[in-house]
Amino acid sequence: MIIKVKVPSPGESITEIEVSSWLVKNGDYVYKNQIIAEIDSDKATLDITAEENGVITLIVKKGEKIKVGEIICFIDTSIQKHDNKKTKKLNSHEKKIKKNKNIPVLIEKKIPSPAAKKILKEKNISIDSIKGTGKDGRITKKDCFLFQKDNLEYSPSSPIMGRPTPMSRSMIKTPLSSIRKKISERLVNVKNQTAMLTTFNEVDMHEIFIIRKKYKEIFKKKHGVNLGFMSFFTLSCIRGLYLYPDINAMIVGEDKINFEYFDISIAISGPKGLMVPIIRNAEHLSFRGIEQEIKKLSIRVRNGKISIDEMTGGTFTITNGGVFGSMLSTPIINPPQSAILGMHKIIERPVVINESVHIRPIMYLALSYDHRIIDGKESVGFLISVKEALENPIKFLMNGSENISKKLEL
User: How many H-runs (helices) and E-runs (strands) does the chain carry?
Assistant: First the structure.
């Protein structure tokens, strides 16, 4: 029996996907529920799994686009893995499919010759970028030279690199993934369709350092997660959003919508780029709840398992460029939200406290906001309220020193 594996719908309004990778080869024996491919939509990367045991025939190449609902591969369930006549059956299976003009079969061996392999390595060229013209699709030295020539040839859209030099100056041209194209489109739209401004402040992290140093080991032992900075920032932002509700609002058509709940988007870097999953109803979560939710979402992003639902919605975003060493930046609003808080690297700096100079761990904060809905007074007030809570977390986030253990659920 031939099983037709079709592209599932990744979400509402998505009609086309791109095959980002195949985890099996043409002719492999696959098992039911085995992950066989990854597909990219303009919102997320999803897994395709085998529906039954059998031998797989791929009909779409890596990097190709295909419509939702179309066939991505076939699985022949009549071939058993333990069958000694597997090879003979597989050959007849391929011939049978080849005869059917409506079922294209791609049997291509991406094997480079020794000379070609050396060029691919030296020039850092992906083997999937080149079509081999040798026997059984073998990549030859000539194929590599032709590929380089085609990709270095001048066209009106090619960048002009100045006066030529005798040194090797190769370039590699690869198409943008569906996710990267959609991100590019969204970011340009934000710049064009919002009146985005950024206001800055700095925060002394001294008190948070003291709390974390004293309680982090107990916290981790009891709850299985670290007492990180994100729980302090999330709770500080929620306090600010209560005080300045227009920061937790957005424009829809000609209306302003104020949200009475707080779905906080957290920017997390993954193998496919920056993803922004959401902590739902963060106002009801404790330090423990927020840290556990962040850990769960981070693991799913880094394993490529995050779903579209987990990234849909959100009323306010927090992003931490400090983990990459950024001292200061102007984050771009995550549409259709109206504001985003940027955290940055903590650096020890001299500061004046009560007419004396002290060395303190200082972080710069940046709030980018849509001036169509948020005035300067609200944006500055919100950022000051966040600074206030971070510099005095015992008072503003824990209701006094006698409640620290209670708030940390120790």
Answer: 10, 19
Q: CB within 8 A of 128, min separation 6: which ones?
A: 62, 63, 110
pLDDT (mean) for 81-95: 51
Mean pLDDT of 43-68: 84
Cis amide linkage into residue 336, ω under 30° from 0: yes
Helix (H, G, I), strand (E, B) or coil at 250: strand
Q: 238 is in which domain, residue-wise? A: 194-407
Lowest mean pLDDT among 66-75, 284-293, 352-361: 66-75
Residue 267 lies in a domain: yes
The last residue of a domain, from among 99, 127, 154 = 99
CA angle (300, 225, 276) in 5-degree steps: 35
Identify the burial level of 280 via C-beta atoms within 10 angstroms of its C-beta, where 0-12 means exposed, 13-18 middle and 19 or more buried.
Answer: middle
284 has catalytic annotation: no
131: helix, strand or coil: coil
Q: Please check the confidence at residue 319 and state whether its pLDDT lies above 90.
A: yes
Among this protein's residues, is 204 annotated catalytic? no
Asked if residue 203 and residue 90 are part of one domain, the reply reads: no
Tell whether 238 is covered by a domain.
yes
Q: Which of 83, 128, 309, 375 is catalytic?
A: 375
Is there a domain that residue 148 lies in? Answer: no
What is the β-pairing status of strands 316-320 and 339-343? parallel
- For residue 155, pLDDT over 70 is answered with no
* Other C-beta atoms lying within 10 Å of the C-beta of residue 387: 18
| Tokens (6 digits) for 105 | 């079969």
Contact 236, 383 (CB under 8 A): no
Residue 198 is assigned to a structural domain of this protein? yes
Residues 335-346 have pLDDT tens digits of 889 999 999 999
Q: What is the DSSP letter of 248?
A: G
Classify the phi-psi angles of 175: left when phi > 0, otherwise alpha if psi is within -120 to 50, otherwise beta.
beta
Higher pLDDT, 152 or 80: 80
Q: What is the CATH number of the domain that holds 14?
A: 2.40.50.100
